Amino acid sequence: MTTDLHGRTQRLELADQNLRDFEAVVLDATPEGIVLNRSAFYPGGGGQPADHGVLLWQGVETRIAGVRKGDDLYLIPAEGDPVPPVGTVVRAAVADERRSALMRTHSGLHVLCGVVFREFGCPVTGGNMEMLTARMDFNLPEVPAGFKESVEDLCNAEIVADRRIDVRVLPRAEAFAIPDIIRTATNLVPPEVEDVRIVDIVGLDTQADGGTHVASTRQIGRIKVAKVESKGRGFRRLRITISD
């Protein structure tokens, strides 16, 4: 399976996470979804929501309110917006504020994961994010004294360290030979995936991951651990916010 192709659509955001504007050709279009030959819209996954944005064509604007993955990658037009005819060349723009905030948030969660794994050896059991706010669940039977404050301080120390965040694609066998490459309690990489995308916060955290990220930890901003919740049976939920 080619990692940068979903159905008939080349996924541009996997190679260039800073790409916001691009041209594409419409391959299929209905009010339920528009298929392009190439797209930089992140379709969602791994807890990261899908991108929003617009398509411009023949003097018309179509707002994109989401993305759906199926046999193809479908850009979901806002209700009532016109859809471009098949064969139309469109100019597309990903909503920058939303994508940039989600990139910072996603990278912040990886810093959190790396710190908690390094200090406490806890696997992740779940997670979710919105713009500049997120949660991550850990298998942590006991919460040590000062845990919340300690984790926050350690996360922000990693941000100040300005660690580089690299993305690369490896053959499955090579990727899974990396120690602790799967930080979740179960392996969520489908067995049919032959090439695995790796996100590496150099010196802190290396994970299989399909989302979009900033280029270094300093670009995240500042992490605040807003709350630590008990979810029963030793599971803890950490809620974080991201600020400048």
Structure description:
By secondary structure, this protein is of the alpha+beta class. It has helices at residues 96-120, 147-160, 172-176, and strands spanning 5-6, 9-11, 21-30, 33-36, 38-39, 53-57, 60-69, 73-77, 89-94, 124-130, 133-139, 165-171, 195-201, 205-208, 222-230, 235-243. A 6-stranded antiparallel β-sheet has the order 4-3-9-6-7-8, with no helix packed on it. It has a 4-stranded antiparallel β-sheet with strand order 10-11-16-15, covered by helices on one side. A 3-stranded mixed β-sheet has the order 1-2-5, with no helix packed on it. The termini are far apart.
Short note summarizing the structure:
The protein has 244 residues and is α+β, with helices and mostly antiparallel strands.
SSE arrangement:
Layout: E1 5-6, E2 9-11, E3 21-30, E4 33-36, E5 38-39, E6 53-57, E7 60-69, E8 73-77, E9 89-94, H1 96-120, E10 124-130, E11 133-139, H2 147-160, E12 165-171, H3 172-176, E13 195-201, E14 205-208, E15 222-230, E16 235-243
| Major sheet strand order | 4-3-9-6-7-8
Q: Give the overall form.
A: elongated
Low-confidence parts = none
Structural Rg: 19 Å
Which structural category fits the helices and strands?
alpha+beta
Task: Name the beta content range.
Answer: 35-45%
With helices defined by DSSP (H or I, 4 residues minimum), what is the helix count? 3
For the biggest sheet, the summary is: 6 strands, antiparallel
Number of strands: 16
Order of helix and strand elements from N to C terminus: EEEEEEEEEHEEHEHEEEE
Distance between the termini: 39 Å
Overall mean confidence score, pLDDT: 94
Helix content class: 10-25%
